[in-house]
Structures are given as C-alpha cells and as structure tokens.
C-alpha cells in the first residue's frame, strides 16, 4: 500500500533492492527485542482508526447472518475486513 503521493511503486521497488547493513550503530534486533520498544510519549500515539460513514451494498444473506450475531455486528464486519486486509487477502 502506497501512503504518499511522492512514494511511487517504482521508488518502493528501488528502495527494496538496497541491502540492509547492520553494524554496532544499527544492530539487528530479534523479535523479542523489538517487542520491548515502546513510544516515549505514549499519549501521542493514538492509533485508533477514524471511522467514516459510507453507503455500501452487501448481499442480503451476508447482512442477515451478521445481524443475527447480535448488537455490534457492524464492528464485527469491520473486524473481518481489517483481518482480510492485514492478511493480504486484498
């Protein structure tokens, strides 16, 4: 996903070809070490996505199934979409 008008797909491909070099100033961290990193000012890291009102057509049977799960079905639908996006199924 490109998040900048200036960062084109070609530029991303070019950047990905540059090898990563680790040294004492920029060591390679393990997954466990990376999980220990936390923002210094946590109050500035509001990562809650902004909700946007949209009009969307969904198959009636899918909507009925989601509504049948009870209150909060729209949030669950959003979670299903988010999971699909994060897993690269889009």
SSE layout and pairing:
Blueprint: H1 9-17, H2 31-35, H3 60-68, H4 73-86
Low-confidence regions: none
Tell me the structural class: mainly alpha
Indicate the percent of residues in helices: 40-55%
The biggest sheet, with number of strands, parallel, antiparallel or mixed sense and barrel status, is: none
H/E topology pattern: HHHH
Shape: elongated
Measured by DSSP, the beta-strand proportion falls in under 5%
Number of strands: 0
Give the helix tally: 4
Q: Rg from C-alpha positions?
A: 20 Å
Distance between the termini: 10 Å
Mean pLDDT: 87
Features:
90 residues; mainly alpha; 4 helices
Question: How is this structure best described in words?
Answer:
The chain is an all-alpha fold. 0% of the residues are buried. The longest helix is centred in the C-terminal third of the chain and has 14 residues, at 73-86. The chain has helices spanning 9-17, 31-35, 60-68, 73-86.
